[in-house]
Amino acid sequence: MKVINNIREIRLKRGITQVQMAQDLQITRQTINAIEKNKYNPSLELALKLIKYFDLPTEELFYLDETGEE
């Protein structure tokens, strides 16, 4: 199973740039880019910061791809 996220879609819908989000969360734009492309899973701490940042339930940001493909 693979963790998938909707962060890019939510960020764009809200009109937030990667640069602004990186500044707000005190991380690099490259980290946000990697998370959005599902190349990197955020740490638990960062995942909780993202949930708080967007003020959304966990399941709206992250979900498990249960197709069995990696």
Structural write-up:
- The protein is mainly alpha-helical and 70 residues long.
- 54% of the residues lie in helices and 11% in strands.
- The chain is built from 5 helices and 2 strands.
- Helix 2 packs across helix 3.
At the fourth CATH level, what is the homologous superfamily? lambda repressor-like DNA-binding domains
Proportion in β-strands? 5-15%
Radius of gyration in whole Å, from Cα?
Answer: 12 Å
State the name of the first-level CATH class.
Mainly Alpha
Q: Which stretches are low in confidence, meaning pLDDT under 50 for 5 or more residues running? A: none
Briefly note the structural class of the backbone: mainly alpha
Biggest beta sheet attributes: 2 strands, antiparallel
Just name the CATH architecture.
Answer: Orthogonal Bundle
What is the global morphology?
A: globular
Number of helices: 5
Topology:
Elements: E1 2-5, H1 7-13, H2 18-25, H3 29-36, H4 44-54, H5 58-61, E2 62-65
Antiparallel strand pairs: 1-2
